[in-house]
Design goal:
The complex is a heterodimer of chains A (589) and B (682). By secondary structure, chain A is of the alpha+beta class. Among the domains of chain A are: 214 residues, no CATH class; 181 residues, no CATH class. Helix content of chain A is 28%, strand content 22%. Chain A contains 12 helices and 22 strands. In chain A, helix 5 packs across helix 6. Chain A starts with 5 loop residues before the first helix and ends with a strand. By secondary structure, chain B is α+β, with helices and mostly antiparallel strands. Chain B folds into 3 domains: 145 residues, Dna Topoisomerase Vi A Subunit, Chain: A, domain 2; 258 residues, Nucleotidyltransferase, domain 5, CATH 3.30.420; 105 residues, Dna Ligase, domain 1, CATH 3.30.1490. Chain B is 31% helix and 28% strand. In chain B, the strands form 11 sheets. In chain B, strands 3-2-1-4-11-12 form a 6-stranded mixed beta sheet, sandwiched between helices. Classes of the chains: A alpha+beta (589), B alpha+beta (682). At the A-B interface, helix 1, helix 5, helix 6, helix 9 and strand 13 of A face helix 3, helix 12 and helix 16 of B.
Chain lengths: 589, 682
């Protein structure tokens, strides 16, 4: 096998990144649903001939995407020009984790041999199911969450299976968007295929495959080394709560343990609670926690490729069939994003427990709301799908992120919502005091308030952190709680259940969602008073919290720190412990 | 504005760079050009600006009264934004949206690692953002009147804090600027000396975060740009220069000092835009209207695709961390230049750039204390540069280059120094190829259909290798690659764009409504041309429209030719850029645009005398490492090559401001305007 030299290796790295950026741009510019183009809920990348990840993304969400295709269609049956498609979560062992995510992948051939895959997946707005948008908190079986597509061959040697495509389009409430999104996704895969072919032609198959393997080893060596320096040998555990499944059940506990031994590292989630009747189950591909640790450990070296090497941070992930993280078919999965972010937060907790607080504090799960109605004039279904930001946890090196959703996903501008939907965004603000107090403050969530101007609509909403807010660490306090309120300040004011569907919203009603923030990191009494002042002036922290949580007093004009009063407040700091969730505790378990 | 007075036949262009200020003086009648170079004076750039003009006037032997136009490309606004050093500014926003900047688009950037990323600090903190009640709907209809008392109160609070730069951005003002205009009146009544910008004038296009940011950046750079431009105008006047000062905008056109002071954020890409205009001009002179220009300096490379003589345009630009969705020349900048430093990372990867050794300490071979191996060191080590640069004013230390490359790169990777140097060049060249792909392939163009036009100090040294990597067969090296930006200024026209979001959904396109918007925009365009004193004969106004398929989020801009013709053009462009069109899908018309151009007289091009025998230009020979093959290579003095001179690779051509490397298998000819046009022979 022709070995690639150090220079070819860097050129392959650069070419892969450029090709990925190019396919992402094509998809964003041509896709039709706002979920892809505004929210940017998609991933494009390359995989090796055996399905190993070559170019990933810092989005720990998907597992081994190509292997389910190879199981159904052995490599020797594939031909140039083929294009494969699926969204089947259970058939892919959580490779995709809810049915809205469509995977398209094309095998790439060089010298007559299968040499890799170009892949793109994206969230499609509506693929059938019980409600517009396909994902409803009301679902109790995956059959209610849209059309299931096992791995199928959509193109054979460049020829479209038009019948298959027609069946798919027929099952959507928004066939035009589905058709446009499918075309965009296929164009992105074909562009990726072309770029990979060019790379093979330039350097030769063996040399490029050797480059893939070397890039993998670079990443693996880095994460393994850093893992060993951060986590001493031994067993640590952490428990994170998922509050409710929207069907009156919960809380559900994610019970994790990490064993660091000389011969390997094991994450054991088998003690996690049983699966839920509601759709918060997350069929977690074991690669996902491996990716989470890998992304954390690779954070300080931007030259590393996010590839299969990340997954070697953790040698084994143990899951229990029938649990919330490995539910049995046909458990519903539509709201799995909630549990997924709880898992990202729990991994922070495991890292903190194993390293003495050298990772970030708890993060909040992003919130969502949907409004669906029928346009009386045209009779068409109308769906407004809006993702709402939260706060992330404070970190050893910095504050947590204020007002972010998740990696790469963007909001709907007010001027876009007002234009496209019978709605008016009245307020979009930082949710003051929602970030956990800390030497490095937890990020704040937001307040988003809309007035509905259309005909009666059905509201679904999803929010967490209303009972168990994201925890603080190393003296940092937990984040604030969120809530959803209908008609705040009016006689008809009503706090809605955090996860639910079927609320009727009438013309003139106002819906307000207040999201929670991340936990704080480190003792808030150690935060520089000037930064506390800036937070008060900016509307992130109240004067009351500055006094009570940070021991910082402001002068009478509210625009400067009262140094003497602050010294007095801080002269007797309250004792702190490792974790905080409502109160300080030594461990969350 | 074109001067009827023949005594004012000269024009001067001043390009202020980080290290040097380049001044080019042109006699429009003869086409003769004089170049001056003077150290920049960052504390007060107007000093070097005037020194340079004086030097150029002395070289040409004329007085200031001969200057009919003074053109200027500036990086004042860019640097203020990139370095976060703009004015303390305040923003008036719609009630409920005080955190519009802090929240932004609520994303962690796609390429960022969420564990290490830190949200960048906004140019205006929330305590300087004031909420004002009053609301319009998406069609611009008033839902709630403007709270005038709140505007006055905010103005007084701003005054108390000593802030004089104020941006106003209210929701849906792109559809109706009435609330913003009224608020501006009220603010000015309270604060007569304040600089106020309203979003409906800076960027009347939907998406409130991006529009707020553009408006804020405008006032953020306004005090400094305004002071700077005023000082330049004063100094020119005091010196007795009669011609007006014209500043290059990001869109590749120039505007008067008054316009630049009102819309300073329009100069954010002033410098690179001037380079692109110069490249388009030189390319056209040599008969190449389809070009990829690459300006390689010490720290960065600016790349632009020029089609049919026009640099590409975009409205999706960024400056530093911020979106700046104003019309700009579509330029991709990467951190790759002669000073780019090579490193071996802990994981064993060889990287080149984006860090640069700059002018100080500079590459190891400069002998100014630099010890890191740079791209220039790799070039010298391989014999691709001669040991003397800048007409012998700079002597390079090849041993220092070899030491730096050997110690920092070759040893850790187990290579010999020459192989390590070749590797460094492969990587930097490949990074540049990646950036060239962004402006070509990603925009639906095949780079092989274009000629490569290199400029800047290091452009012609790398271009011949880049062309081979890209499959480009023609390379056009301008006569004076170091001063192409100044030339771009001299050949530029006045240009401005007027746009309004006016969403039209099928099947009911409001043709009369669109006509009314275009009429409005054209009136604004004519008023601007009149303000710039462009005579009727030099005016051009064109309609454009931005369209998308229903449900898409990005628009494509095409020339307006009535509803049906424009939609047809949109389908064609979508197919070319993205490989597919969707004629079965309805199309929305989103933004209507009008571009206004005021033509200035074109300078007569330089005519080079006929070439003598080529041997007379040969000054030396040296060994050059071409892909591992050491080849004895002649060195020519480019200044001794006349029109029609033929060069056959391998060859090195030296001149004051650059070195051109010609590979074996490439040959070329100097054309009558001094461009060296190289072609692959195989």
């Amino acid at each position: 096998m022709a070995a690639c030299d150090a220079v070819t290796l860097e050129i392959v790295r650069g070419a892969l990144r450029a090709a990925q950026a190019e396919t992402e741009a094509l998809l964003e510019r041509t896709a039709m649903s706002d979920v892809i183009r505004e929210k940017k809920d998609y991933f494009t990348g390359y995989f090796g001939p055996e399905g190993k990840l070559i170019t990933g993304t810092p989005l720990p969400l998907f597992g081994h995407i190509i292997r389910p295709i190879l199981r159904q269609f052995p490599a020797e049956t594939m031909r140039p020009g083929d294009l494969y498609w699926y969204n089947d979560c259970y058939a892919s062992d959580g490779g995709v984790s809810h049915l809205n995510d469509q995977v398209f992948a094309a095998p790439v051939f060089c010298e007559g041999k299968l040499s890799g895959f170009a892949q793109s997946w994206a969230h499609f707005t509506d693929i059938g199911g019980m409600r517009p948008g396909s994902m409803s908190p009301d679902a109790t079986e995956i059959f209610q969450e849209g059309l299931m597509v096992p791995p199928v061959r959509l193109y054979r040697e460049g020829k479209l299976n038009a019948e298959l495509f027609r069946i798919f389009i027929r099952n959507s409430r928004f066939p035009q968007q589905l058709q446009g999104d499918t075309r965009a996704l296929i164009a992105a895969v074909r562009l990726g295929e072309k770029r990979l072919l060019e790379l093979f032609a330039r350097f030769g198959r063996d040399s490029v495959l050797d480059a893939f393997a070397k890039l993998d080893l670079q990443t693996e060596a880095h994460v393994r080394k850093r893992l060993r320096t951060l986590f001493p040998p031994g067993r640590s555990s952490f428990v994170e709560a998922v509050e409710s499944d929207g069907h009156g059940n919960g809380p559900f506990k994610l019970r994790l343990a990490i064993d660091v031994a000389d011969n390997g590292i094991v994450v054991d989630a088998t003690a996690t609670d049983d699966q839920a009747p509601g759709p918060i189950n997350w069929l977690m591909n074991p690669a996902v926690p491996q990716m989470i640790f890998g992304i954390f450990l690779s954070g300080e070296d931007p030259t590393l490729m996010l590839n299969e090497g990340l997954m070697h941070a953790i040698d084994e992930v143990r899951l229990r069939p029938g649990s919330l993280l490995k539910p049995d078919f046909p458990a519903p999965l539509g709201q799995r994003g909630l549990t997924m972010v709880r898992m990202v937060s729990a991994c922070n907790g495991l890292m903190c427990a194993a390293s003495g607080g050298e990772a970030g504090a708890g993060i909040a799960s992003y919130a969502l709301w949907y409004l669906r109605t029928t346009d009386p004039a045209s009779g068409e279904t109308l769906l407004m799908n809006d993702g709402v930001a939260v706060g992330f946890g404070g970190r050893p090196q910095a504050d947590g992120h204020d007002a972010v959703y998740f990696v790469a996903q963007e909001n709907n501008p007010a001027e876009y919502l007002d234009q496209l939907y019978p709605a008016r965004l009245l307020r979009y603000a930082i949710n003051r005091d929602s970030g956990g107090a800390g030497r490095h403050r937890g990020g704040c969530g937001v307040i988003r308030e809309i007035e509905w101007l259309g005909p009666d609509a059905m509201l679904a909403n999803r929010l967490s952190g209303t009972i168990f807010p994201p925890w603080g660490v190393k003296g940092g306090k937990c984040g604030g709680k969120g809530r959803v309120v209908l008609n705040p300040g009016r006689a008809t004011e009503r706090v809605l259940p955090p996860i639910g569907d079927g609320t009727t919203v009438r013309k003139g009603d106002v819906i307000r969602i207040e999201t929670g923030g991340g936990g704080g990191w480190g003792d808030p009494f150690a935060r520089e008073p000037e930064r506390v002042l800036a937070d008060v002036l900016g509307g992130f922290v109240s004067e009351r919290s500055a006094r009570a949580d940070y021991g910082v007093a402001l002068a009478a004009d509210g625009r400067s720190v009262d140094a003497a009063a602050t010294r007095k407040l801080r002269s007797n700091p309250p004792p702190v412990r490792m974790f905080h969730q409502g109160e300080y505790v030594d461990a969350l378990s | 504005m074109p001067s009827p007075d023949p005594s004012r036949s000269a024009a001067v262009a001043i390009d202020v760079g980080g290290t040097f200020t380049d001044v080019t003086l042109l006699d429009r009648n003869s086409g003769r050009v004089w170049n001056a170079k003077t150290p920049s004076t960052p504390d007060d750039p107007s000093r070097a600006f005037m020194d340079g003009i004086d030097q150029a006037l002395a070289l040409a032997g004329i007085g200031p009264e001969a200057l009919g136009h003074v053109f200027h490309g500036t990086t004042v606004a860019t640097n203020l934004i990139l370095e976060g050093k703009g004015a303390e500014a305040a923003l008036l926003t719609t009630a409920g949206f005080r955190h519009v900047l802090e929240i932004g688009r609520h994303d962690i950037p796609r390429k960022a690692n969420m564990y290490s990323w830190i949200k960048p600090k906004r140019p205006v903190p929330p305590e300087r953002i004031h909420e004002i009640a009053g609301r319009l709907d998406a069609d611009g209809k008033e839902i709630q009147p403007l709270d005038e008392a709140a505007v006055r109160a905010a103005a007084r609070a701003i005054a108390k804090q000593g802030i004089r730069a104020i941006a106003i951005c209210f929701l849906h003002s792109y559809a109706n600027p009435a609330h913003e205009r009224r608020a501006r009146e009220l603010v000015r009544a309270e604060l007569p000396d304040a600089l106020v910008s309203i979003s409906a004038e800076v960027l009347p296009v939907f998406r409130e975060y991006e529009r707020s940011m553009a408006t804020i950046l405008n006032v953020y750079v306004m005090p400094a740009v305004s002071t700077y431009v005023a000082r330049l105008s004063d100094r020119l006047k005091a010196r007795g220069v009669p011609g007006p000062l014209l500043l290059m905008k990001s869109n590749g056109g120039v505007a008067s000092a008054a316009t630049a002071r009102r819309e300073p954020v329009q100069t954010a890409l002033s410098g690179p835009a001037a380079g692109a205009m110069g490249a388009a001009h030189i390319g056209a002179l040599s008969g190449h209207r389809n070009l990829i220009s690459i300006d390689i300096g010490g720290t960065s490379a600016d790349i632009c695709l020029i089609q049919d003589g026009q640099p590409g345009a975009t409205v999706e630009g960024r400056v530093g961390e911020w979106p700046l969705t104003l019309p700009m020349v579509d330029i991709v900048t990467i951190g790759a230049g002669g000073g780019s430093i090579a490193r071996v990372t802990e994981a064993g990867a060889l990287t080149v750039g984006p860090h640069s050794a700059g002018a100080v300490p500079g590459p190891a071979c400069y002998g100014r204390g630099g010890i890191e191996p740079t791209v220039t060191d790799a070039n010298l080590l391989l014999g691709r540069l001669t040991p003397k640069l800048l007409d012998g004013r700079l002597t390079l230390d090849r041993e220092a280059s070899k030491r730096a490359v050997a110690d920092k790169i070759a040893k850790p990777l187990g290579l010999d120094p020459a192989a390590a140097a070749r590797g460094m060049l492969s990587i930097i060249d490949n990074n540049m190829v990646g950036a060239i792909r962004v402006v070509s392939v990603e925009r639906g163009h095949d780079p092989r259909d274009f000629a490569l036009l290199p400029f800047g100090g290091a452009g012609p040294l790398h271009a011949t290798a880049l062309a081979r990597l890209l499959g480009v067969r023609t390379i056009v090296v301008p006569a004076a690659p170091g001063v192409l930006s100044a030339l771009g200024l001299l050949v530029s026209n006045l240009k401005s764009e007027f746009a309004r979001t006016y969403l039209q959904r099928p099947p009911d396109y409001d043709r009369a409504g669109m006509e009314a918007v275009y009429t409005d925009l054209e009136r604004a365009a004519r008023e601007w041309l009149a303000e710039e004193a462009v005579p009727e004969s030099g005016r051009a106004i064109a309609r454009m429209a931005a369209l998308r398929y229903v449900h898409q989020g990005f628009e494509l801009t095409v020339p307006w030719s009535g509803v049906e013709g424009t939609i047809e053009a949109f389908h064609r462009l979508h197919e070319r850029l993205y490989t597919f069109a969707q004629p079965d899908t309805p199309v929305e018309i989103v933004t209507l645009r009008v571009t206004a151009t005021g033509s200035l007289p074109r300078p007569a091009p330089l005519e080079l005398p006929k070439a003598g025998p080529i041997d007379a230009a040969r000054i030396d020979r040296q060994k050059v490492d071409f892909d591992g093959q050491p080849i004895e290579t002649p060195v020519y003095d480019r200044n001794r090559l006349g029109a029609g001179a033929r060069i056959k690779g391998p060859a090195i051509l030296v001149q004051l401001d650059t070195t051109t490397l010609v590979y074996p298998g490439q040959e070329g000819e100097v054309d009558r305007h001094g461009c060296l046009v190289l072609r692959e022979t195989a």
